[in-house]
Amino acid sequence: MTKLPHHRDIDPLPPPPGSFDRMMHSARARRRRQGLAVLSSVAALVLVASGAFALGSSVNDTQTFAQAGGSAGVGTTTITTTETAGNGTATQQDAAGPATSKPPAAVPAPTGSGTPTDATSSAPPIIALRGHVVDADGAPVVGLLVQPGARNRVVYRSDGRIAAVTDAQGNFDIPCPRAPVLLATWQLDHDAPPPSVGAGWAATFLGPEDAPHPVVPACGKRRTTTVVARGATVSGVVQTVGPCAPDDSFAVQVWLDNNREQSVRLAGLRAGETFTVAGLPAGSHTLAAGGATTALELTQGDVVTQDVTFTCVPDPGASTATSPVTPSADPSPSTTSATDPAPAPSGSLPTAPSGARRSG
């Protein structure tokens, strides 16, 4: 057998110059591209999820606020809602029928803190609640105050602002409130100057007539038409008992649905002055004045006369030689300034000795 030559290890060839640096640069570039792809995917998912959440919260079907005991606020029996989409029209009529006479169409907007905050905006909101308000004859209702409620509450509660006022066509556009919305001729929970507040149209919520509670109206491109009915009016004379000063003033409130947290207020009244609270919805309400309360049962277009009495107490620093004041038949606390009526005790609301007088 031929003996093979001795095996010799072969030395490897040296790498080309700069090959290591080129390999590291290529690896780093590949990692950067992979990282940018991952970040772009995450950002796209976040944007899609955020947009879907926002649109789903505003363009979804109307959600009804669940009532957690007690009253939900102003009654919804005076509303007719019509929504038009494509070739179909859905209309919900007021069970009480159209009004027999037309109240004034225009309502002056309140001054001071009642100035609309969004009505002067020239650009429409991106996601908006669009409304159209008319009377039973289809004529636009001008000057109604659009008052959205506070968000995330089980019952309607005014957030203290006027979002818009219906224009000459009876239209309004406001940013999607995601809360019930009240239409009224007065600002809720706001001290109005004497001697009167409100006008002929009944306060009502946006939403279907048969809803048991205020609802969150759907936002979007469609404009919802709401028909408002005639409101009720309560009027009376401010009477006083005791040594009232000439500059003493008094306040009257109407608690809607007997809920003092939803009140129509009239402050600064003088003795002998006649007050008027108009635009009240049909239903059960409470007239509060001078520490006494009177139950009101109102229907559409009612005009009720109910005088109120305030008892003035003598100044503790006055001379004791003066003749005593004849005690009033009303044991309720008295007032000598334009303050809110005294709170009613828990349980059933006390009523004044004499009932309300209903006229015409």
Compile the SSE list and pairings.
Layout lengths: L18 H40 L4 E2 L14 E7 L2 E4 L36 E7 L10 E4 L15 E2 L5 E5 L5 E4 L6 E2 L3 E2 L6 E2 L9 E2 L6 E6 L3 E10 L8 E6 L7 E7 L4 E7 L2 E7 L2 E7 L4 E3 L2 E4 L45 E3 L1
Parallel strand pairs: 4-13, 9-16, 10-17, 14-20, 14-21
Antiparallel strand pairs: 1-12, 2-3, 2-13, 4-7, 5-6, 5-8, 8-11, 14-17, 15-16, 15-18, 18-19, 20-22
Description:
It is built from one helix and 22 strands. The chain has one helix spanning 19-58, and strands at 63-64, 79-85, 88-91, 128-134, 145-148, 164-165, 171-175, 181-184, 191-192, 196-197, 204-205, 215-216, 223-228, 232-241, 250-255, 263-269, 274-280, 283-289, 292-298, 303-305, 308-311, 357-359. The longest helix is centred in the first third of the chain and has 40 residues, at 19-58. The chain starts with 18 loop residues before the first helix and ends with a strand.
N-to-C SSE string, H for helix and E for strand: HEEEEEEEEEEEEEEEEEEEEEE
Helix vs. strand class:
mainly beta
Amino-to-carboxy terminus distance: 140 Å
The tally of beta strands, per DSSP, is 22
What is the CA-atom radius of gyration, in angstroms? 34 Å
The whole-number mean of residue pLDDT values reads 74
Oligomer: single chain
Strand content: 25-35%
Helix content: 10-25%
Low-confidence stretches: 56-73, 75-106, 108-121, 320-354
Biggest β-sheet strands, sense, barrel: 6 strands, mixed
SS element count, helices: 1
The coarse silhouette is elongated
